Every structure is written in structure tokens, then in C-alpha cells.
Amino acid sequence: MDRKKGYVIAVVGSGGKTTLIARLAKQSREAGMKTAVMTTTHMWLPRCFSGAGMRISEAKQKMEQEGIVVCGQKGQGREEGKLVFPGQAAYEELCRQADLTLVEADGSRGLPMKYPDQGREPVIPGNVDAIFVVFGLSAVGKPLNQVCHRWQLGCGLRPGEGEEQGKRLVEPELASDFLERGYLRPLSFAYPAALLSVILNQAEGENQRKAGLQIKALLEKKGRRVQLACLKPFRIAVIYMASGRGTRFGGNKLTALVQGKPLYRHGLEVFLQVK
Fold it and tell me: Is the peptide bond before 122 cis (omega within 30 degrees of 0)?
């Protein structure tokens, strides 16, 4: 295709593809770039974006006005509620208009680990400039058959076979082997000009981070680019301990006045002032 401008990133793998795309799109917009988000397979529509089912002219206008557009057809049947490929003409047109195009090019059934069906997956667009392979570190330490999509393929088995092998726990060696054989080696041969990187997501706890560092070291020995990430933002929950009537106090503590305000309100305002 004739692509006049823009950079195309395909995101594949498991354990945070949509979250990574949403973060990259926001960073792109903050940098003043126009960004198009699409899929070559199917994806859940990021909550922070909209745009499913709009015409290409509307998508281009939305991208000009808001900096980001998510473009695709609405899924039907089993894909209802998801976004699917917008069609080749729409894809190429948005690639020409966008500074950055982010493509979710794989599916993992919501699991943190995957071994792709070679020859069918992932669905990488021909104009790709970079490929990010995502892996969810929450898979480490858990049974393979519970956390890995198409795990039988990675073990050289047919669907339904290998019940005992499926019970083996995912260790860093197994994770790095699945990544290398399933994604990195095939993609490096098929797209030698594309930048290929691994994002080890969900490095939230000490165990996940330790496993991530082990996987990173194993893959870097093979010359792979790898980084640890925690794509899901941390949220702080606050429980405001505020009881009511107290015998020793002799009344309702919450409604007692402190500096002219009820105690509960005074406490909240003090808390909100803390940086």
C-alpha cells in the first residue's frame, strides 16, 4: 500500500494488549500526534475511547478534532460487543491520515499467556513498523492449562491431548520458550525490518517482578528487546474510619463541631489537603 506518513505498531500476545494500546494512544495525543486504533482480528473497545461502526469520513473528522479515533466494524454473533477489522480500504485511509496507527493483531481469550496457531496468528498488517509482544506475568506459577490459550500447540499436542502436561506450572523457562518459539522467532523471520519488542506486563508484585527479570534475562541472551511493565494503574482505596455515638464522649462524634464544621467533614477536608 502507499502510506504517505505515520508509524504502525502491531500489538500481539496476551495479558494487556488493549491496555497497552490505550496508554500509547493517550501518550501520542499528549504529544500532539493524531492516532488511529484498529484491529485486524477483534478487540474489546477501550472504555476511554469510542468510534465503533462510524464511517471513514466520520473517523477522520473525529481524529482531527480529538486526536484519537478507534475505528472498526461492530462484531456480530460470537463477536458481539467487540470491534472487528474495519476493512482494507478504511484501514489504509486512516494509516495515511494518522501519525500513529495502533493495531491489536491477536486474541488470547482474556488469558495472560498464549501460544499462537502458526500460519493463522497473529494477523500482522503488511505495513507494520514495530511489533510489541505482550506477556502477562500473572501466568507464572500457575497451571499451564489454566492460564495459556492454545497451550497444547506449544507442547506439540492436539487440542484435547496432554492432560498431565497441562497441569505443569508455568516457570520462567517455559514462558520464555513459548515466547521465543511462538512469537519472536517466527516474527523476526517474517518481518525482519520491523522493530520487535517484548513487554512483560503485570510486574506488580515481588514474585511477578522476580519472574519477569528471569524471563527478561533468558530472552536477552537470544538478542531480544525486553522490558518489564505494570500497565494497569495503581488505585488507592481509602477507608475513612468514622464511628458515631460514643459513651465516653457523651454524644455523636460525627456531628460534633470542630472549627465550626462537623467532625467528619473537617477530617475529610484535612485529608484532601495532604499532598
Answer: yes
Q: State the pLDDT confidence band at 238, using cuts at 50, 70 and 90.
A: low
Please name the helix (run of DSSP H) or strand (run of DSSP E) that holds residue 9, with its range, or none: strand 7-13
178-210, pLDDT tens digit by residue?
A: 999 999 999 999 999 999 999 999 999 999 999
Scored b (16 or more CB within 10 A) or e, 160-197 reads eebeeebeeebebebbbbbbbebbbeebbeebeebebb
Please tell me the pTM assigned to this model. 0.80
Task: Please provide the size of the chain in residues.
Answer: 275
Distance CA 43, CA 274 (A): 40
Local structure of residue 232 (DSSP, 8 states): S
Enumerate the β-bridge partners of residue 200: 135, 228
Residue 135: C-alpha distances to residues 84, 168, 246, 255 (Å): 22, 18, 53, 51
**Whole-angstrom Cα distance, residue 156 to residue 139?**
20
78 Cα distance to chain centroid: 21
Least confident stretch, 22-31, 33-42, 145-154, 241-250: 241-250
pLDDT of residue 242: 59
Q: Please give the single-letter amino acid code of residue 270.
A: V
